[in-house]
């Protein structure tokens, strides 16, 4: 048996032994049998390479793999409180949605399918839209994948290209499922309002299909060219504002406004969350850095009002880096930041 025939047999065995939809398996096996008759044709190698890549993709997708949901409200409360300060109304809404998911169980084919309205967190930059989506996934015990929409201009980014095109590959939805290895994963559609003007209408059309439970049970990626059931996937979306989001898409979302933080809330976040995390990341022992209470105003608002906490995080990281340098140089083992010396530590 020549090497070409052997490689085709290897692919046939791979397709037979992997968990695939039966119709897809039959389709691929027919194509491989046809390909086995072309081993002496000049078109064999490119077609074989194309088929091998396709089989590599379909055999790693979670057609029937899912994770077990952790619908424990007490555990979810602990995770949300640990990861986020304040946002009481937001946390309550998330716990309500988890309660809905627990109550509205619908029996699927051997699995429990939980459905809930699709959340859309709307707010200014740095207010925690993305991080709270990760907390939802953690609370549910599901893997999460993030798809950034900023600057996206082509719906094929989501839906993939036909295998007839050179260098074709699946879209970001299928890639997310491959990465999470779970058909009931959380997929974060981040900043869906920031697509380009030229591609907005067509991308919004794909979003309607993704977010509509009456349509997404048979989502078709152009590369895979076989329906994939997304009805168990939990989509979470974020946006800076809803002005540029199509009405048909908004109709399928539950918008939740993310509030801006007051200076006092930022100080609490910095003291309880950001500073300890930054010190740990930099390897600075607990207690080696003390910041006076009256200094925090300068750290929180060095350049004027900021709705989010990105600037605050950058300032604290800057302070921590300078402290780390002092400790490594042996100039001191602990640092006390006061109103007199704060300018020495704040990033310029």
Automatic annotation (TrEMBL):
Pfam family name, one: AAA
One GO term (biological process): protein quality control for misfolded or incompletely synthesized proteins
Source species, domain of life: Bacteria
A GO term for molecular function: ATP hydrolysis activity
Matches recorded under Gene3D superfamilies: 1.10.8.60, P-loop containing nucleotide triphosphate hydrolases
Occurrences of domain AAA+ ATPase (ranges): 115-263
Protein name in the entry: AAA+ ATPase domain-containing protein
Source species taxonomy: Bacteria, Candidatus Woeseibacteriota
